[in-house]
Design brief:
By secondary structure, this protein is α+β, with helices and mostly antiparallel strands. The chain has one domain: Nucleotidyltransferase, domain 5. It is built from five helices and five strands, in the order E-E-H-E-H-H-E-H-E-H. Strands 1-2-5 form a three-stranded antiparallel beta sheet. Helix 1 runs parallel beside helix 3 and helix 4 packs antiparallel against helix 5. The longest helix is centred in the first third of the chain and has 18 residues.
Length: 136
């Protein structure tokens, strides 16, 4: 999900990844694809939020170049340089509900979704809750 500084939805996407070794690889692919989407929408500043602490730590360190995900690690780091300002942020799973709702909307029959102007009411509600936990 891509939101502006006020938490308003700009765009969103979900992709079904097949035959992956682990959840961390799926999270890394989603992070990469999110940065690609943000860049394609003309975003100049980005905060990449993720709820996988080991991936967060790896992306902040030099450990990634020796990992099995070295290629993705390098791609994410290179994509982050596209933005005028970039920050990596760890959020607990409860604060990242919008991403999990998006992921639940794809299936084998419907492997990818892209929302650019019209958003499902369910997504809007979840994003509002993520941005303002007092709404929940």
């Amino acid at each position: 999900m891509i939101r502006d500084a006020d938490g308003v939805l700009i765009a969103g996407a979900a992709q079904r990844y097949m035959h992956l070794a682990d959840a961390q690889t799926a999270k890394a692919l989603a992070a990469r694809d999110g940065l690609v989407l943000a860049a394609s929408r003309g975003c100049e500043r980005a905060i990449l939020e993720m709820d996988n602490l080991s991936l967060f730590n790896m992306l902040q360190s030099e450990m990634g170049e020796r990992s099995v995900m070295a290629g993705l690690w390098q791609e994410i780091r290179e994509l982050s340089r596209i933005f005028v300002a970039f920050k990596l942020s760890f959020v607990y799973r409860e604060g990242n509900e919008a991403a999990h709702v998006c992921a639940s909307l794809v299936s084998e029959a419907n492997p990818n979704e892209l929302w650019l102007t019209v958003f499902l009411p369910r997504l809007i509600r979840v994003v509002e809750t993520d941005c303002n936990p007092a709404v929940a």
